[in-house]
Every structure is written in C-alpha cells, then in structure tokens.
Amino acid sequence: MASTAIINKAAPTRAVKYGSMSRDRKWALRWSYFFLTLFAIFSLVPPLYMLITSLKSSAEISAATNPWWVFHPTLENYIGLLTSNQFLRFFWNSALVSIFVVTITMLISVPAAFALARMRFWGSATLATGVFLTYLIPDSLLFIPLFKMFAVFGDWTGIQLINRWYVLLIIYPTLTVPFCTWIMIGYFASIPKELDEAAIIDGASWFQTLTRIFIPVALPGLIAATIFAFTVSWAQFLYPLVFTTSNDQLVLPVGIITSLIKGDVFNWGQIMTGALLGAAPPLIIYAFLMDYYIAGLTAGATKG
Amino acid sequence: MVDVAFQPNRVAGAKSARKRSSLKTALKRKSTAAFLMTLPLILLITILVLYPAIYSLHLATLNKSMQRFIGLGNFEFLFKRDTFWLVVKQSCIFAITAVVFKALIGFIVAHFVHNIPAKGQRKWRGMLLVPWVIPPAMSTLAWLWLFDPSYSAFNYTLSFFGIGPIPWTGDANWARFSVILVNIWYGAPFFMIMYLASLKSVPDQLYEAAAIDGANWWQRIWYVTLPMMRNIIAITTLFSLIVTFANFDIVRILTAGGPLDHTHIFATWAFRIGIEGSDIPLGASVSLFMVPILAVAAIFILRDVNKRGNEA
C-alpha cells in the first residue's frame, strides 16, 4: 500500500501508462464481479429457497403464488417442527451420534497420528499409506457387507445392533478416522523435532510429549479435524438409511425424508424447514470457524 | 558382533551388553507404545473396512438365500440384464460429465476470486463454499422442491421467457441432466477452494516474467498456472471422480433411480437390489463393479500424493 503510493507520487510522468493499465484492470475486475455474482446466485438459490418456503403456510404454497416471495410470512412450520417430539428426537439422535463419533474419532486418530508421525516402527510407512487408501474407499462399497456382518453378528451373539442408533457409532469412524489421522500426521510432522527432543530430554514420557506439546501446538489441525468429523457424521445419509428403520432410532437426514414425506403427500413447508434446521449446525460452525473448515478441506492434499 | 571381538576385556563387554540391553528395552518400550497407540486404528481398519471388502467378494458368489455357492452366477445374471448396462452407462456419464464440469467451473471461479482485491475475497469465498457445507441430503431436498413437477420455481421463472414447463425429474434425459446439475452445484466449490489455495502458492515472479516476455493471459494460464497447479488438479480430479462415482445421496433423493431406472448409478442400484430387494449377494456384486475404477483412481492419487511428499 505504502510503496505504491510512493511510486505514484514519485513518478507522475508515467500516470498515462498507469491509467490505461488500470482501465484494463478495472474492466477485468468488473467482469470478475459480474461472473462471481452469477455463481454466487447459483450457489445460494437452493438454501435461500429453503428459507423462503419455510416461512410460507401450506395454503400459500398450494396457491402457487410467486414462489420467490413470501406474502404472508409465518413461523408455523418452525413451531410445528420444534414442538414435534419426533423431530426433536431426530435432532437429538443426530447430535448424540455426532458428538460421540467426534470423541471416538479423536481418541483413535490423534494417538495413531502421533505414533505414525514421530515413532518410526516396523510397518509405519505402510500403515500411513494404508490409512490414506482407506479414506478413498467410499461408503457405498461397504454398506452391503457391513449390513450382512452386523446381521450375522446379531445372530451369533444375540446382541442386536441393526436398527439401533448406536450402531452408527461403530460405523461412522470408518469414514472419519482415516482422514483425521491423515491430516493430523501432516500437522504433527510439521512440528520441529527439537521440540519433542527437548521434552524427552527433560524426562517427559511419550504420553506427556503428546498431551503437553503436540496437542497444544497442533491445535488448529485438531480443530480442523474435529470440524471435519462433525460435518461428516452430521451429513451421513447412506449408513443410517441402511442400518436404522424405526422412527425413534433415526437421525435427522433420514428422519426428515422418511417421516415428512408420506407416500405422495409432500408437506413442503415443513420439509424445507426441517432441511434448513438440519443444515444449520454445519452452517453455523462454518460461519464462525471458516478458516479452520477450509484448512481441513485443503490439508488433505497439501499436507502429504 | 563387536562384543565378541572385545571378548577378553570382560568388564567393558559386560558394560556394553548392559547398555545394549537397556537400549533394547527402551526401543521395545517405544515400539510397544507406538503399537498400542495405533492398535485402535489398525483394528478399526481391519474389522470394519478390510474385512467387509473381502467379505463382499465372498457374498457376491452366493445365491439369493445365501446358502449355496454359485461362483460367478450373479455376474452372469447381471451381464444378461439390460438394466445393468443402463446403470454402467449412466454411472460413467454421470461421473465423467459431473467431474469435468466441476473442475472447469471450479477453475474459472477460483480465477475470478483470485482476481479481485484480497480484502473482498474472504466474503466471496464464504458465499461460494456454502453448497459444500450444507449436508447433501438436505440441499438435494431443496433441489427436489425446485424441480417439483407442478410447483417448480424454475418453471415459474422460465415461463416468463416463454419456455414451457420442463419435466426436470420426469423425463429420462432431463432427469439425467438434473442429477448432474445438482452434483455440479454441490461439488464445484470443493474444486474452487482447492484451486484457490494452489493459485495463491504460485509465485508472482513467474507471472511478471511471463508478462515481460509478452505472454497474453491465455499463455499465462497455459504455460504458468496450469503446470504449477498440475499436481493439485490431478489429485482433486481423481478424488472427485471417486466420490462422484460412488455418489448415493443426490440420486437417491432426487430421482431414486427413476424414471424407469434411467438415472440409477451403481450405489443406488445396489441399494435398491441389496437392501430394498433383500438380494444381498446380487447387491454386493453390483457394488463390486465400482472397484476397478476406484482402484485405478486411487493408485494415481497415491502416486501424486507421494510425489508431493518427496518434493516437500
């Protein structure tokens, strides 16, 4: 800033040239803003439309007035959902599952990442690669064998896991742990070796090195990994659809789709309200912790 | 070995032996600790990822009641069905078209965001990433409502331009277009954010040098930006190919495979057969067809990620 000002003052004779350059630049800027606005509209239409519809009464929706405008805003959809025990149950199940999964994920992936980043042992490099490969195995490949596995497990031991919300606590970590371990390896590996050597020399155990040095220093990575684990377990749709069926065991995404869509009757006002409320927790986290969210997104590929 | 050579000097030998054994226990302790720390991870991957993957190979060779081994019978059955080939075709169309457009749109938008003054970039980036943040099951519901046959807000808007009501999810080709459009909407921001991060890491000097050599903007992109971003483009594209190929949520909610199975992809068809139709072996065989393309993409990603690791 300061240097450009000085250059402008010092070289007034070149003003013409700067003028033409800045005119080009100005047009480039205008085009950029124009297209960015188009893309932003494209990005924001569905969420905004959720909001618009959620404020309408079902009478206004079926009257087919201008869909982009609310003529008689009402909160009846919100009141209807937030006082319905069923919807609150879905929300509660989702929250419970996500919080437990985040805890389990962190308990598994942080020590593992520490061991893989710092303690070279037999097979550690292979294991790190294996973790990354596991991250690439999609849920849609594993849901059928997992379903059968849990059914057989139930027959053998008598412990019924299918159609219980806590079965998700066992399955979701397969989605969250590999990626969280992978990005934590990256963050831990970027911590200078001298730091933990100093701790070891001072007589700290491995466990103390992890809790007193690594976790505080790599806190941004830890937050990014936590956000990732939370958003994945909040948004997961396939596994709960396969593994849970009773109304009291469903999580939010599946609950909205199976309970609010009754046959061919779509109560769109409530569906959009439910979808918006379901999208709210990740959106709120994103709004406040955008930098950590983006760090987590890009860390997977840039920290190798 | 060294100890044997110095055998006559017993004191020194004993000393070094003790030293070595204490070193050994320390080493042992360290590796035991490391093993214990990674044990939950190893167990998780073995029991819940590797075992099911192998188990699905076994499942695919059983008959519907899962009592008899029928070898490749399920695959033979699949090859004879028209729907299967429809699914193969649609999966490829869906994944390739969606990934190409996501990559292109992501690249273009990343350039626009990179172009504007740094102060405003945060705001734009924040807005453009929203589709990626909303759980896809929730946002697809909004799209379903936007595409509604009788109340479609798009058709309402298009009617002002004299464009007749479009059967967004009713007609096979329009339904194919719709699922791809929603997938692009959902996935393009991911590309945008990855490209933006890598655009920022291209040194300005390179562009200055190119500008001095008289390169126009196209040559700057072709000779400077693309080569510098090649690695990240490859990783992002391959990763997105895997995710898109294995997509379930969007197709399931938007069309559930319809009309007449024309928008089914491997994941949704496997769900329809394996869980809804309770023919688990056949469903497992369908989902196994995803493996080859996933494996190829994974190998290339791994190569690129390792290359990146070596450079750093």
| Count of spatially separate domains of chain A | 2
* Tally of separate helices of chain A: 16
Specify the overall morphology of chain B: globular
- Count the E strands of chain A: 2
Please indicate the percent range of residues of chain B in DSSP E strands (runs of 2 or more). Answer: under 5%
Question: What can you see in these coordinates?
Answer:
Chain A has 304 residues and is an all-alpha fold. Chain A folds into 2 domains: 1-44; 78-299, Orthogonal Bundle (MetI-like fold). Chain A is 78% helix and 1% strand. Chain A has 16 helices and 2 strands. A two-stranded antiparallel sheet of chain A has the order 1-2. In chain A, helix 5 (85-118) runs parallel beside helix 9 (173-189), helix 5 (85-118) crosses helix 12 and helix 6 (124-136) packs across helix 9 (173-189). The longest helix of chain A has 40 residues, at 15-54. Chain B is an all-alpha fold. Chain B folds into 2 domains: 3-59; 73-309, MetI-like (MetI-like fold). Chain B has 15 helices and no strands. Chain B is globular, with a radius of gyration of 28 Å. At the A-B interface, helix 2, helix 5, helix 6, helix 7 and helix 9 of A face helix 2, helix 4, helix 5, helix 6 and helix 7 of B.
